[in-house]
Specification:
This protein is α+β, with helices and mostly antiparallel strands. The chain has two domains: 99 residues, PAS domain (Beta-Lactamase); 174 residues, Reverse transcriptase/Diguanylate cyclase domain (Alpha-Beta Plaits, 2-Layer Sandwich), CATH 3.30.70.270. It is 42% helix and 22% strand. The chain has a five-stranded antiparallel β-sheet with strand order 2-1-5-4-3. The radius of gyration is 34 Å and the shape is elongated.
């Protein structure tokens, strides 16, 4: 035969003293072992180099009951997740059991696929998505997740506070965004100092902070926390050559008030903030005020549409005396 070279398959060189099956295990890029069960104890055969290097003998003992059950049932294949180690050095594996049919005694091939790196990357990405990069606090999404979990667990003895800084836009415009960021970090530290250790503080917007409070005794606790926050923010903040006086508006929503979703609670507290801006003190959400506001908004929308479509007609034009305000004709 001419015109080219003939490639020949070269079998891998097995380490001396190993059978072909044992040598094949050594070539696998994952931890693997052949295991069995004699009715009383787990039998470990032919672990490969990666299995030995990771020290998975104890792990194999831990999953021994699963291996015994698998071999007793006669299944061909099984797969499950298994974690080892403490919280800091925890490793995550997918364990696969595959029956070996050529043995007289029941045996199975056990492989360990390490997913630790993938899961840690996923956890880091999820953490970045739920953490505010400026303050290091949970962001709106992270705060919503915490609140959603608490509602799902049935822990409704809690309140959501929304703290909105007054005139922050003006401070940001006059002193610059770097000064504004410095102010936000200082505000976050002061608010954190006014809270209890188990309360959750988050930055839910540009100049808005959310707080999740556990209420142990009465709803008055939320009012007391709001007063402490206003008190700690009352002292001037020093930014460059300026002393900045910061005031805030605080809205409160209670989870017990038929709230089933985290966003409802946050929206209720934000609505109460608008009332707080008018009254100058912390305000709790009131359903009737919310209903009235929605009705006023609907009426405003209808009037704007009526004006645009020329649907308004003037039927009566009073003439008033400007000096007295009295209608004269």
């Amino acid at each position: 035969m001419t015109g080219g070279n003939i490639a020949k398959a070269i079998p891998p060189v097995m380490p001396p003293g190993l059978t072909a099956a044992e040598g094949a295990l050594e070539l696998l890029p994952i931890a693997a072992v052949v295991a069995g069960f004699d009715g009383e104890r787990l039998i470990r055969e032919t672990p490969n180099a990666i299995f030995r290097r990771l020290g998975l003998d104890r792990t194999l003992e831990d999953i021994g009951p699963r291996i015994a059950t698998f071999l007793a049932k006669g299944d061909a294949r099984a797969e499950f997740a298994w974690d080892i180690g403490d919280a800091v050095e925890r490793r995550h594996f997918t364990v696969t059991l595959a029956r070996i049919g050529y043995r007289a005694e029941p045996r199975c091939f056990v492989s360990f696929v390490d997913h630790t790196g993938e899961l840690r990357t996923e956890q880091n990405l999820r953490r970045e998505m739920t953490i505010d990069s400026l303050t290091g606090l949970p962001n709106r999404g992270g705060f919503g997740d915490r609140l959603e979990a608490q509602i799902a667990e049935g822990e409704t003895a809690c309140a959501v506070l929304v703290v909105d800084l007054d005139r922050f836009g003006r401070i940001n415009a006059c002193l610059g965004s770097m000064a504004g960021d410095e102010l936000l970090m200082a505000v976050a530290r002061r608010i954190k100092g006014a809270l209890r250790t188990h309360d959750v503080l988050a930055r839910t917007g540009g100049d808005e902070f959310g707080i999740l409070l556990s209420i142990d005794d009465s709803r008055d606790e939320a009012e007391h926390v709001a007063k402490r926050i206003r008190a700690v923010l009352a002292a001037p903040f020093r930014l460059s050559d300026y002393e900045i006086q910061v005031t805030c508006s605080i809205g409160i929503a209670f989870i017990e008030d038929a709230v089933t979703e985290a966003e409802d609670a946050i929206r209720h507290a934000q609505f109460a903030v608008r009332r707080s801006k008018e009254s100058g003190q912390a305000e709790a959400y009131q359903n009737h005020a919310f209903v009235r506001a929605r009705e006023e908004f609907a009426l405003e929308t209808q009037l704007r549409r009526a004006i645009a479509e020329e649907q308004l007609t003037l039927h009566f034009q009073p003439i008033c005396d400007l000096s007295t305000g009295r209608i004269v004709s």
